[in-house]
Amino acid sequence: MHPLTLTLDNPLLKSKNIRIAIYRGDLEHKQAPGNKWHKLKFNLEAAKAQGAKQLISFGGPYSNHLHALGNIALSYAITPIAIVRGELHPQLTPTLRDFVKAGGILWPSKRIDYRAGMESELVADLKAYYPKAYWVPEGGSNSLGVKGCCDWAQEIHAQAQALGEFDTWVVSAGTGATSAGFLAYETKNENNSPDVLVFPALKGGEGLLDDIQRFALTQNPQTDIERLKIIGDYHHGGYAKLPQELKDYIEKLHLLNPELKLDPVYTAKVVYGLEQEIIKGHLDNRNLLLIHTGGLQGWSGYQ
């Protein structure tokens, strides 16, 4: 846990009676920091238990999920295989270079096949080619991925209690699996259970509500969806978009928090959105815990 200095004036925060801390998930697990390890660990254990020789998943050319998978799959004696959105170019992205260097195998996917997911012809071909492979959805977002995030929430909660009670957890969202795990765990605790405030990184993120509820119910049938709030106004143009306004904000925030680095796809948008909601008076009298979900290798896509 670390304090977080926002670009807002301190007197403004004090006048609104707001306390903010950040959980540094980016400092966890060097090879798969943040939520990446937690979404993969039970899937890797299941793959090993089934005797799988390969684990196949999906992602883009700068995917944090694929990068983490490549880093840790071989330690389970499992070959990581990536179905990559779009064509593969002779000059691979840094993310995909690391994946191959770690022993991974790449399969390019036409965008129409990628959108079809498990129903695509490519997947049918790969199932025939790798009959004993274990399959994981994009981002590691299945019931086992949510279970891992539910366990992660328990770890965070135990550490957070040492700093006092936080009434609101703040987190980014891509598929919604991480926030679902948080929601499932926290609503198991009837006393002092925080709300979960979610900032989607992509357009139309408000539509994640049904997915988050469905994911959370796999871990806790009594999940209280009323404890969840999605704010979809701060995607900055959509997934992986980095307009100059957000870039300038990241640089300004780094000057105030030199030990803290935010990833451009997820956590930076959360902190920006959080400040705007504070200015609007929507978070007065709150004790906020912001969860850094890692993903710093994603900066390679902007260099």
Give a verbal description of the structure.
With 303 residues, this protein is an alpha/beta fold. It folds into two domains: 2-31 and 142-302, Rossmann fold, CATH 3.40.50.1100; 35-140, Rossmann fold, CATH 3.40.50. 39% of the residues lie in helices and 16% in strands. It has eleven helices and ten strands. The chain has helices at 10-15, 35-49, 64-72, 94-101, 111-116, 121-129, 143-160, 177-186, 208-217, 244-256, 267-279; strands spanning 2-3, 19-24, 54-59, 79-85, 105-109, 134-135, 168-173, 195-200, 228-230, 287-292. The strands form two sheets. The chain has a six-stranded mixed β-sheet with strand order 1-2-10-7-8-9. Strands 5-4-3-6 form a four-stranded parallel β-sheet. Helix 9 links the parallel strand 8 (195-200) and strand 9 (228-230). It starts with a strand and ends in an 11-residue tail after the last strand.
